[in-house]
Structure formats: C-alpha cells, structure tokens
C-alpha cells in the first residue's frame, strides 16, 4: 500500500461522511466503522518523511455533523497507560476530526502537493486523527454488536 492507495481510501471516507446522513442509523454505523477501519489500516503504510514542499497552513473544511443517536456519546480514557477518570467522547466529534484532517490532505493532493499531503496525513495520524479513529472504532464496535 502506498500514498495512491491511501488517497483512494481517504476520499472514500470523506465521500461516505458527506452522504452518510441519508443512511439509516444502523447502516450509518456499519458503514462508518468499515471505512474508518479501512483508512486507519491504510495510514499504517504511509511514510513519515519531512515534506520538502513549503505550504501555507491549510484550513480544515467544515465536515457534516453526523447524528449517531443514542450511540453518539461513549465513555473513554485518553491514555490507556495513565490511570485517570473516564471521560465522555462523541462519535460525531471523532468522525468530524478524522474527516477534517483527511480532507485537508486531499486538498493538498489535488493541488499537486503530494509530499505535503502524505506528510499531513501521516503526522496527523500519529498525533491527532489516529486517536479519534481508534476511539470511534471501539465505540462503533459496541454500537454495531447486535448481542450487546
């Protein structure tokens, strides 16, 4: 897997979120879980190289806010290696953050600033959107489980 493959998966995630409000809630939960896992897995293959391209800071597009109903809020800990009180997370916030970071890289990619796009995606994966993806995946795993 490489940058081209990641771009396809990032675009698929963004496009899903753009149209997900039209899906019934059970279908929305399943689709977001599948696409989120796919883009997370693809990010593991992205190189973490400094970009030689000098780009202005990119603003994040406003992602659509998805309604996850009773499944939106969940309990989480920020760092599983530090004992701390559980906090409330929100699937809608997690999905919005992943969307914004992926869309920012897609804008760089479309502007033919590919090294900068790859750096943006990988750096964001390690410090920001990867955490949101993992948090959301755990909640989505539970929400999609018919036996819970």
Q: Which features would summarize this protein structure in a list?
A:
two-stranded antiparallel sheet; globular; 148 residues; mainly alpha; 58% helix
Percentage of residues assigned to helices:
55-70%
Read across the widest sheet, the strand sequence of neighbours is 1-2
Cα distance, first to last residue?
35 Å
- Quaternary: single chain
Radius of gyration: 15 Å
* Average predicted local confidence, pLDDT: 91
Described by the principal axes of the CA atoms, the overall outline is globular
Give the ordered list of helices and strands. HHEEHH
Q: What is the β-strand count? A: 2
Describe this structure in words.
The protein has helices at 3-19, 25-43, 91-110, 114-143; strands spanning 73-76, 87-90. The mean pLDDT is 91. The protein has a two-stranded antiparallel ribbon with strand order 1-2. The longest helix has 30 residues, at 114-143. Helix 1 (3-19) runs antiparallel to helix 2 (25-43). It is mainly alpha-helical and 148 residues long. It is globular. The protein starts with a helix and ends in a 5-residue tail after the last helix. It is built from four helices and two strands.
